[in-house]
Amino acid sequence: MTQETHASDDYEARIEAAESGPLKAAARWVVALASAALGDAEYEANEPQVVVHSRQDDSVVLRITTSSLEEAERLVVQIREDLETLSTDEFKAEWEGAGDKS
């Protein structure tokens, strides 16, 4: 009997704040405060990202920047479901090209 392996054996998905320089971070805070003052609470001061890390060495396998925490929460659920059901190769094929471009 063979044991089926899933991508979750190799990878884990997390929600993280984007790392940005001090000027970009300050600009995002100014825009977030202005948006909140105008009644738009949707704008996030910190760009939420869904990041898939290797369990072996914690390296980043996939990084997707989202526009809001709600979007990041929906996306991390979808990715975690795929990690639980797809093999590592299937996961790579499914999410190839979905990440942020460096």
What's this, in brief?
The chain has helices at 22-37, 69-85, 88-95, and strands at 11-17, 48-54, 60-65. The protein is an alpha+beta fold.
| Shape label | elongated
Give the helix level as a range of percent. Answer: 40-55%
Overall pLDDT:
83
Distance between the termini: 42 Å
Give the biggest beta sheet.
Answer: 3 strands, antiparallel
Number of strands: 3
Structural class, by secondary structure, is alpha+beta
Order of helices and strands: EHEEHH
Quaternary form? single chain
Protein name: DUF2218 domain-containing protein
Organism: Glutamicibacter nicotianae (Arthrobacter nicotianae)
Structural features, described:
The protein is an alpha+beta fold and 102 residues long. The protein has three helices and three strands. A three-stranded antiparallel β-sheet has the order 1-2-3, with helices on one face. A hairpin with a 5-residue loop joins β2 and β3. The longest helix has 17 residues, at 69-85.
Architecture blueprint of SSEs:
Layout: E1 11-17, H1 22-37, E2 48-54, E3 60-65, H2 69-85, H3 88-95
Antiparallel strand pairs: 1-2, 2-3
Offer a few descriptive terms:
3 strands, 102 residues, DUF2218 domain-containing protein, 3-stranded antiparallel β-sheet, alpha+beta
